């Protein structure tokens, strides 16, 4: 149980009148349903509804005070504290309510590669002798184990409760993912950052962001507003959009570390495939190193270098960071080799956006002496515009395309498939994801590579408002073991 805190200590900049400032606060929440007696309720305008509609419910549940945007006109039977930016204020209040944070925190943004980079950075820090954790789409992974989470960047109250608990457990180094939703909704505004990383930018979440510029600007906030001036900015400079992030870092006056083929701090001079591994030639300020990265997929080299850059930016000696790349373990569900059957190999990958699908197909192409086959779908209640683009990417990058269901959520799965199929001429449609995977596995011929894309590490399929148990890994493994062959 967290100790009560005086409201005035949680909102020191407001100069609250003495009686109000002394109000004991037992918890903080932006969800009226989670409010308990003595809580501070933050009434936030959201994407679906407005928290001010639930002030009455929060007070009925025992809220001691309400935090709200000054222009929202919130009234209540308990004191209302008007502020200019309730979301940012909530993040800072959460940081004061759960005050401990790991000594070193690095946040990573970008359209693809965030989960991979935070996982690699955790491993590099651990190899350098630190108590390290990572937090993001895969949940929280720490020295004592892993717990699954639902959001890539949790809401500020959950986030700071986690940071506080991790610090209490002795974690000194945390690598976390900063999603565009998280940045836009100011979920990380209370986090004390030491470093920020950028992977790449392509299309995603256009259901949420009104324009591409809005999406990019949300990501830029990490560099232009959240990273303090003493921090380090690590930018993978191989994509055109990286210039925005380099400029933001320069304008902020932070240390800029660039990585990738065009990188100055860690320059990838050459890459050569070595079975499921890659040999990287890296030039850095102190010299040149040849590293065997034990991971498949060209882009994992860029992700590994971004992680190494973040390790260097947070005090790990360059040689130690580069040595650690040789021992990196893969990320669950990212270019994840599951097994072989009849001389054909099967990979599970989390590509659920056009650019990721194109990248992973390109990364797997060299392994396909025969056909490159892809089974994938697209999530419901998410950016509908990406569906035809994913269809195009699959048709362009694979020899055989099977369109199936991802997480349909509240949408009609057949309509989602139809939107993909319209852009993937010649593709086959098998709605049932299990059947689609079994059909593809049973048809494998020597030299084929099968990619099952879109759900990666996920262990459920969201249909309507129910999550049914489903794992691409399990279905693939069962299919690999069964003796069935395609008719
Ligand atoms: C679109 C979106 O991002 N929504 C997130 C956002 O909700 P919101 O503030 O817009 O909420 P809303 O439903 O409009 O409600 C407004 C306010 O009323 C409150 N309310 C609502 C009902 C009620 O009875 N009482 C009450 O107090 C809500 O708690 C909220 O504060 O803030 C909530 C708390 O932080 C999140 O749980 C919620 O995530 C939803 C569930 C979600 O699915 N988000 C996804 C899209 C997301 O955030 N994804 C990113 C990126 C993923 C990636 O690409 O990796 C992520 O970081 O996971
Ligand atoms: N550097 C990269 N460039 C292009 N594609 C990538 C890169 N890294 C990963 N991918 C693709 O994106 C998928 C998701 O990777 P990862 O989970 O590391 O990214 P993420 O940014 O955390 O994604 P999400 O926003 O869904 O959490 C991978 O399975 C792969 O298909
Ligand atoms: N964090 C991403 C995950 C998408 C995964 C994919 N399987 C889907 O359901 O679309 C999102 O919520 O948009
Ligand atoms: Mg992620």
UniProtKB/TrEMBL annotation:
Enzyme class: ligase
Domain Mur ligase N-terminal catalytic: 25-98
Reaction(s) catalysed (UniProt annotation): UDP-N-acetyl-alpha-D-muramoyl-L-alanyl-D-glutamate + meso-2,6-diaminopimelate + ATP = UDP-N-acetyl-alpha-D-muramoyl-L-alanyl-gamma-D-glutamyl-meso-2,6-diaminopimelate + ADP + phosphate + H(+)
Pfam families per the UniProt record, alphabetical: Mur_ligase, Mur_ligase_C, Mur_ligase_M
Mur ligase central domain mapped to chain residues: 108-311
Binding site for UDP-N-acetyl-alpha-D-muramoyl-L-alanyl-D-glutamate: 32, 152-153, 179, 185, 187
Keyword Manganese listed: no
Modified residues (N6-carboxylysine): 219
Post-translational modification comment from the UniProt entry: Carboxylation is probably crucial for Mg(2+) binding and, consequently, for the gamma-phosphate positioning of ATP.
Main location (coarse class): cytoplasm
Motif Meso-diaminopimelate recognition motif per record, residues: 406-409
Residues the record lists as binding meso-2,6-diaminopimelate: 382, 406-409, 454, 458
GO molecular function: UDP-N-acetylmuramoylalanyl-D-glutamate-2,6-diaminopimelate ligase activity
Location in the cell: Cytoplasm
Assigned protein family: Belongs to the MurCDEF family. MurE subfamily.
NCBIfam families: murE, PRK00139.1-2, PRK00139.1-4
Record protein name field: UDP-N-acetylmuramoyl-L-alanyl-D-glutamate--2,6-diaminopimelate ligase
Organism field: Methylopila henanensis
Gene of this entry: murE
């Amino acid at each position: 149980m967290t100790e009560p805190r005086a409201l005035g200590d949680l909102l020191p900049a407001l100069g609250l009148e003495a009686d109000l400032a002394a109000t004991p606060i037992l918890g903080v929440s932006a969800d009226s349903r989670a409010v308990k007696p003595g809580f501070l309720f933050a009434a936030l305008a959201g994407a679906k509804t407005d928290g001010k509609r639930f002030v009455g419910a929060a007070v009925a549940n025992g809220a001691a005070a309400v935090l709200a945007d000054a222009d929202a006109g919130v009234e209540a039977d308990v004191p209302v504290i008007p502020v200019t930016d309730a979301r940012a204020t909530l993040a800072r209040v959460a940081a004061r309510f759960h005050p401990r944070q790991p000594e070193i925190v690095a946040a990573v943004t970008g359209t693809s590669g965030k989960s991979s980079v935070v996982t690699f950075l955790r491993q590099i820090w651990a190899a350098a002798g630190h108590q390290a954790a990572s937090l993001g789409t895969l949940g929280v992974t720490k020295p004592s184990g892993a717990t699954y989470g639902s959001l890539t960047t949790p809401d500020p109250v959950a986030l700071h409760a986690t940071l506080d608990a991790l610090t209490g457990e002795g974690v000194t180094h945390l690598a976390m993912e900063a999603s565009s939703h998280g940045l836009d909704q100011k979920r990380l505004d209370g986090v004390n950052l030491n470093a920020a990383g950028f992977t790449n930018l392509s299309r995603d979440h256009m259901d949420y962001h009104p324009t591409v510029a809005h999406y990019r600007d949300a990501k830029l906030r990490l560099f232009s507003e959240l990273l303090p001036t003493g921090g380090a900015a690590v930018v993978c400079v191989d994509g055109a959009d990286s210039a925005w992030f380099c400029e933001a870092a320069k304008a902020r006056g932070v240390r800029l570390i660039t990585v990738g083929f065009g990188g100055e701090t860690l320059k990838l001079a050459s890459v050569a495939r070595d079975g499921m591994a890659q040999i990287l030639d890296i030039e850095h300020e102190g010299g040149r190193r040849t590293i065997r990265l034990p991971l498949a997929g060209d882009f994992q080299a860029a992700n590994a270098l971004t992680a190494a850059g973040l390790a260097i930016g947070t005090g790990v000696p360059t040689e130690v960071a580069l040595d650690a790349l040789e021992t990196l373990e893969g990320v669950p569900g990212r270019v994840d080799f599951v097994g072989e059957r009849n001389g054909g190999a099967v990979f599970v990958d989390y590509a659920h956006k056009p650019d990721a699908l194109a990248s992973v197909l390109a990364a797997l192409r060299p392994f396909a002496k025969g056909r490159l086959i892809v089974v994938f779908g697209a999530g419901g209640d998410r950016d509908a515009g990406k569906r035809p683009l994913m269809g195009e990417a699959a048709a362009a990058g694979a020899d055989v395309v099977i369109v199936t269901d991802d997480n349909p959520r509240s949408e009609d799965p057949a309509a989602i498939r139809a939107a993909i199929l319209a852009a993937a001429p010649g593709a086959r449609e098998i709605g049932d994801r299990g059947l689609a995977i079994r059909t593809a596995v049973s048809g494998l011929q020597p030299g084929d590579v099968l990619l099952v894309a879109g759900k990666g590490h996920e262990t459920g399929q969201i249909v309507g408002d129910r999550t049914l148990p489903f794992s691409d890994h399990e279905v693939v493994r069962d299919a690999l073991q069964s003796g069935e062959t395609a008719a």
